[in-house]
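Consortium newsletter contribution from the modelling node. Members have asked for a concrete example of what our holo predictions look like. Here is one, prepared for the 4-nitrophenyl beta-D-glucopyranoside complex that several groups have been discussing at recent meetings.
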Amino acid sequence: MDHDISRRNFARIAGLGALSAALPAVAAGKPEEASAAAARARTFPRGFLWGTATASYQVEGAVNEDGRGPSIWDTFSHTPGKTVNGATGDVADDHYHRYKQDVQLMKALGVKAYRFSIAWPRVFPQGSGSPNPKGLDFYNRLVDELLANGIAPFATLYHWDLPQALQDNGGGWESRDTAEAFGRYAGYVAQHLSDRVKHFFTINEFGAFVELGYRIGIHAPGLQLPPGRFNQTRHHAVLGHGLAVQAIRANAKPGTKVGLAENMTICCPVIEDDANIRAAERATREMNAQYMTVIQEGRYTDAYLARTVADSPKFTPADLKVISSPLDFVGINIYTPTWIRADDSPLGFTPVPNPSSYPHMASSWLTIGPEALYWGPRNVAKLWKVKEIYITENGCSSSDVPAADGKVYDTDRIMYLRNYLTQLQRATTDAVPVKGYFCWSLMDNFEWADGYTNRFGLHYVDYATQTRTPKLSASFYRETIRRNAVA
Ligand code: PNW
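And here is the predicted structure:
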């Protein structure tokens, strides 16, 4: 008995997971029991929410229909040289017209939840002012179709398609007016959809749209603001989030839950020992200071303010209160790890750059590190005592060339998903409160500046015919959902 317990403890400490659980049975010469134990060890908690995700501009098309106003992504993608092969979201997956068929794809996968985004310029073509009821109607139809098929709708209010009018008047997120308009729009949507939508995300990925759009300039609106104006833009984005949280609470039906979906820097210890684990926790706070940390803690860290000095954002204590409005859950989009080691610098950590041989998926930024799905939620739960976490995006690009039989054998995506999900399962066995997982993406779509070249879907889309074909990874995901365990 004692023997057994210490062996199990050893296995836990060594992090051997499924294999270690099966070892005693293997040693006893009972392979069936061994594989049953291994299967149990790969199992997720009962009721774990499996889903997929998309975003409006990436899939909908129909950019001129039913009164939709232009967004900064229409303008940007139509500007020569901004996207690969001049790709635009004019048609994309034509999901606006094919949503019923797409809900059937979800149903065939067996997902219980779908994360989609609402296009602000469909609902308020000018960003604020009068709403366009026909725009909201599309989401009414989509939500009804999902519910009729037993799929819970999880709605994101901002996945980067800012109404162009708000960019033209005041510089988009550079202006406080945009944060305020976002709050009004969020309240309006919550008022009309919260009878059926129980989970809202305010903003998708501050860390991508603000940095890539307003500092580096490779996403819409394509600006390279100087540091002071840029840090103010960051501040307005988190302020917009907080105003939206308050507006949703003020306008939604009781029981509606509010959170966000942020692609934090996922700090993972280079080696899983005490010193590096602590360093990765410190790094999580500091490397996310401008977004997640201020949202969770209601203050910018001293190190952030010291780093930005004269270019620090201007803010009031009242702003910080709004920004840190309590959330019901936290969504994290996780693709890649940032490896952290302890050192004796003032902050006590340093990121370790990837060597040139480090493996990545088809997108060069998508470096592989399954442990990100373990340390990401674990650090968030520990640092900020978060009780409900969703992985709101995880997935990868693959070259995805159809074989002679027309099928796509994306063994690399299966490898990626299997390894990442194994680490997510490990998090659940360590009592990290991860409640669900949304695979990015349901189907290939408009991958922003990369156009249609990088495919992230579980379904292959032939853009000439709009045919959707399940890839091998769709079978893998369906089987994982069916077992509620890593397949
Ligand atoms: C996320 N990076 O974007 C977005 O939320 C999705 O819209 C997108 O399609 C998906 O991930 C895949 O890219 C990212 O350069 C874009 O590190 C770029 C980066 C990360 C996330």
